[in-house]
Every structure is written in structure tokens, then in C-alpha cells.
Amino acid sequence: xxxxxxxxxxxxxxxxxxxxxxxxxxxxxxxxxxxxxxxxxxxxxxxxxxxxxxxxxxxxxxxxxxxxxxxxxxxxxxxxxxxxxxxxxxxxxxxxxxxxxxxxxxxxxxxxxxxxxxxxxxxxxxxxxxxxxxxxxx
Amino acid sequence: xxxxxxxxxxxxxxxxxxxxxxxxxxxxxxxxxxxxxxxxxxxxxxxxxxxxxxxxxxxxxxxxxxxxxxxxxxxxxxxxxxxxxxxxxxxxxxxxxxxxxxxxxxxxxxxxxxxxxxxxxxxxxxxxxxxxxxxxxxxxxxxxxxxxxxxxxxxxxxxxxxxxxxxxxxxxxxxxxxxxxxxxxxxxxxx
Lengths: 138, 191
Ligand SMILES: Nc1nc2c(ncn2[C@@H]2O[C@H](COP(=O)(O)OP(=O)(O)O)[C@@H](O)[C@H]2O)c(=O)[nH]1
Ligand SMILES: [Mg+2]
Known about the structure:
The structure holds two protein chains of two kinds. By secondary structure, chain A is an alpha+beta fold. Chain A has helices spanning 5-17, 43-67, 107-121; strands spanning 22-29, 34-37, 77-81, 84-90, 95-101. Residues 1-5 of chain B have low confidence and may be disordered. The longest helix of chain B is centred in the C-terminal third of the chain and has 25 residues, at 166-190. The complex binds guanosine-5'-diphosphate (GDP) and magnesium ion. Chain A: Pfam families: Robl_LC7 (PF03259).
């Protein structure tokens, strides 16, 4: 990630501030790991949200491949649950941006603002693939 | 026989085990329909988290679940759900386990400890299972040694397999179905 972590969390906080009813924002890697998130989200909850969001995105790709135009293209995933909304959009290569909002939030505004952020800084929101043969350091 | 109660019996089966043990490989090798794949490229964010030791060629990981289907004969259809292995996805397991009639636990002898969690969860749920040793290269342990190391009771079937081979994976599933049969027959005798 070229943009410094601090800058990125500032941009995420800013996204929440200008989007009514939003609670948390998180950037995650496509394999379900937290990259950066807003301060209101504890590290444990950020880890949880990263795993959930990667699963939803992956299932959405499956839906797109089977029932869309076959390209697997995805605009956004949105889930409405009791007490809130979850939005996920693709960010830069290998990464997704997720936002949790309150029940009464305006989905159009949230989607618009998330996509705007990705357009601005998507190239910095990346999680490059691991090198082949690269094993863990553990 | 409960398994034969209708012309076509669908059984929901889960395939569990640690990261990189071959769960996705098994669902892909046996499925007769295009398997649902939720494989995602492993990113650098996972270095130090997702331990690919021993399976260095692995470049993707399951982030939701694998799904496939196999008909063992005219009457019996298995619906296969492969669970994601890493701890961050364990929250999905409860949902995956609901309605499950049996499970396959895949083990890799280089990382046996990774399978303890799966076995614990299945025992806790009361889900019957068989254990399959997915062989990577020359076997270095006998099945008896694996049974001891896993502290498996004698009535849990333990077999060796190569998850990449359809016939081998199918044989594991047949072992599971036979085990389920034996358990349900035993229950009928005692009741
Ligand atoms: N040599 C060998 N490699 C295998 C075998 N089964 C799986 N693999 C490889 O091991 C890696 C992990 O398999 P995968 O099915 O993704 O594991 P999962 O995390 O349990 O779903 C992949 O690169 C497979 O190609 C096997 O039986 N023998
Ligand atoms: Mg897998």
C-alpha cells in the first residue's frame, strides 16, 4: 500500500463523516484479512467483518458468473439485516471496501460515496498476491 | 432404512479440516456439476496468518464454502459442502453443519494438529464422521499411528486417499455413507 496507513484511515473516517448514518468503514483483502479501518471498529470486530465481507463478495461473484452476463463483474454487494446495512464494493487490485450503516441510511448515497472514494484512491487500496512458493514466516 | 426412504435421497455432507489439507481439491475432483468455487487469491496480507508450509504451490484459499454434488447410485445423491479452513472463517461452520448428516475430516500428517478443531466441533455437534488421510507424497505414517495421534476411537473409520483423484475421493464418500448406514442400523437394533 503506497498511501500511508494513517492517510488511509483518515480518508475512511472522512467517508463516514460525509455519509449520514454510516458506522464503520473497512478495507480488506480479497482473502478476508483486514487492511485498514475506522477507529470505531475494534481490531477483533474488524477481523470479523473482513472475513464476512470477503465471503459475501466471493459468493456474489459466483452469482454473477452463473446468472449474470458471464463476466463475473460485480457492482456492489448489499445486505440489509435487522439493525443495519452492509455495503461492499471492489477497491483496488485484490481489495474490497466495506461500510456498515444504520437501518435508515440511504443506499444510493452510500454506494455513490464509496465508489467516489474508490475512484479517487482505488489504486492505493490494494492487496497484491503472495509470491508463489512464499511460505509463512512462522 | 432411513437412507432409502425415497427414490432419490439427498444427503448433505460437509468436508472439513485445516488450511490447505485438500478440501476444495476433493469437492472439485468428485463433483458431477460445476462446483461452486469461492477461491480467492491469497494476498500478502495473509503472510504470517495463513501458513502454507508444505503446500507452497497453493495460491488461492476458500473464503465462503465449496459446493458440489455427486450421485453414488440412482437413489443416493450427496450434496458436498467444503468448509473454509482458517480460524477467521469458523463462524460459518455452524450454519454449514446444520442439516448435515455426516462429515469427512481431511488430515495432512505434516500438520495433524490443524484437524483437532474440526474433530472437536463434529463431536460436539454429534455429527458422524470419517477421517481421510490425504496423502501428499510417500506416506510417512501408518493409519494406526494417525489414529493414535488423533486419539480417534476405534469405531471412527480412517482411510487414506488422494483428494486429486475422483475415484479415491469417491471411495472416501462411500466409506462415510456405509458408516452412516451402520450407525442407523445399529440404532434400529437397539430401539
Ligand atoms: N501432492 C498433493 N497435493 C494436493 C493434494 N490435495 C491437494 N493438493 C494441493 O494442495 C493444495 C491445497 O489444496 P486445497 O484443496 O486448496 O486445500 P483446502 O484449503 O483444504 O481447500 C493445492 O495446491 C492442491 O493442488 C494431494 O492429495 N496431493
Ligand atoms: Mg479450500
